[in-house]
User: Fold this.
Amino acid sequence: MSDTPWQGDACSLVDAFRSGERSPVEELDATLATIDSSELNAFTWLDADAARAQAATADVSLPFGGVPMGVKELTPVAGWPETHCSLAFDGKPYDFTATHVTRLLDAGAVAVGQCNASEFGGLNVSVNRLHGVTHNPWEHGRTAGGSSGGSAAAVAGGQVTIATGGDGGGSIRIPGGFCGLLGLKGTAGRIPRGPQTEVYPLTVVSGCMARSVRDAARWYDVTAGYDSRDPYSLPKVEGWERDLGTRELRGLRVAIAPDLGVAVVRPEVEQLVREAAELLVRGGTYARWVRLGLDDLGGAAVATAPARLREP
Assistant:
């Protein structure tokens, strides 16, 4: 038995389960021990007994069979406390589970517990008065980003190989960038937002904090696809992981706008963007610097509370 959780990606962990190199039970034991000894404050609540029961009966032939998974605290799971990372809620248990989490559980994932976020997901840092600060695994005291920063810290900090996230204005992409993970915001509607669908804002999507592209592709294979309780959800597209490959950069067109017209960007960050653009040009892409003047919609998004379509 290993004393530490798997340090590769989720897909390779499933391979290790299938080959007998590792078992879901010992992986979960290592995960829980690491969370217990960690100072990252990535996890805020654990469902250890239920997770052990899931691990003991895990079907490793499934896409995420036996893989411990963190769940962003803003994502509903039946029986888990509903707090929205806010002191305003008393933590009564959710009475439903998000559609994409249900699909992940059906695909064999082992739900370990809740990961920290900002209060109501309103800030791009993972800090709140209920749970405190989540630290960046690369340097204690630095931010992990947000609002999916707890999920990102858990994955980058070696506690779990994958975790849920949500993104309306950067809440997957920012912690992904801060923690050195893949942070993909998919097309709105690709992953259903039911069973109680939030109608507004339509910019918010579900996704994951992942260590590899293939992990994110497998995630979409499992979670994406139409659900009747979300009228905005899109038809299922097959073969995300199957169709992964490489392509030439030559001939692609890239627009480069470091500040999007509204952000304050440090000079050293802009320099890194310029250096990355130069690498793309050397690879044969057509890169053009553009000036944008996007409206600042953050205030409007925060001021309008989301409505929900509830199950009949």
The radius of gyration is 19 Å. The longest helix spans residues 267-282. DSSP finds nine helices and 14 strands in the chain.
